[in-house]
Specification:
heterodimer; A: 110 residues; mainly beta; 11 strands; B: 113 residues; 6-stranded mixed sheet; 5-stranded antiparallel sheet; globular
């Protein structure tokens, strides 16, 4: 069976500090991978998606970047966090029946 | 511009009764729709989907209805159970193959015992 991991589960970071969130998928190969953010009172916003190693599409302009160094690894990064980067970050992968999400990372920027 | 809207932020229903969650969309190119359930501090879990070529899809206690002319879909849960209490998101896609979904803002369902 397929499993998706995210870490850390929670993170508190000061404004201006860097960020690295990691997502890995097990039990499948060459998945489409996605980063979403859920900000307070808002729906899930698609940030990035990737159809393969080194292939990243950005959906919205922002202070974040993504990388896919390995087939089943997807990383979300920032060089300098802003207060507005606070939110619940979710990694997801897809198969024909739909999209399946990881447990998420709660990021609080102080 | 919110292409997928869930206008009711919350809903309370008595256990055993029907829960109806609504979702409206603006993009007529959307061809695939999904519902997700989300518990606090967890990722959303896929619940049920419907293609634009259908107007109804049923899976156990969950039924999704699609009205393309009204650009409206709804999720019916019958009978509602306390364990159904969660936030429900509808999502839509207009780009087959990339699975780029646009999500609504969610409706918090509370099922009262």
């Amino acid at each position: 069976s397929q499993t998706i991991h995210q870490w850390p589960a929670t993170l508190v970071q000061p404004v201006g500090s860097p960020l690295s969130l990691e997502c890995t998928v097990e039990g499948t190969s060459n998945p489409n991978l996605y980063w979403y953010r859920q900000a307070a009172g808002r729906g899930l916003q698609l940030l990035f998606y990737s159809v393969g190693i080194g292939q990243i599409s950005s959906e919205v302009p922002q202070n974040l970047s993504a990388s896919r160094p390995q087939d089943r690894q997807f990383i979300l990064s920032s060089k300098k966090l802003l207060l507005s980067d606070s939110g619940f970050y979710l990694c997801a992968w897809t198969r024909t029946t739909g999209q399946y999400f990881g447990p998420g990372t709660r990021l609080t920027v102080t | 511009d919110q292409q997928v809207k869930q206008n009711s932020p919350s809903l309370s229903v008595q256990e055993g009764r029907i829960s109806i969650l609504n979702c409206d969309y603006t993009n007529s190119m959307f061809d695939y729709f999904l519902w997700y359930k989300k518990y606090p501090a967890e990722g959303p879990t896929f619940l049920i989907s419907i293609s634009s070529i259908k107007d109804k899809n049923e899976d156990g206690r969950f039924t999704v209805f699609l009205n393309k002319s009204a650009k409206h879909l709804s999720l019916h849960i019958v009978p509602s159970q306390p364990g159904d209490s969660a936030v429900y998101f509808c999502a839509a896609s207009a780009t087959p193959g990339t699975y780029k979904y646009i999500f609504g803002t969610g409706t918090r369902l509370k099922v009262l015992a």
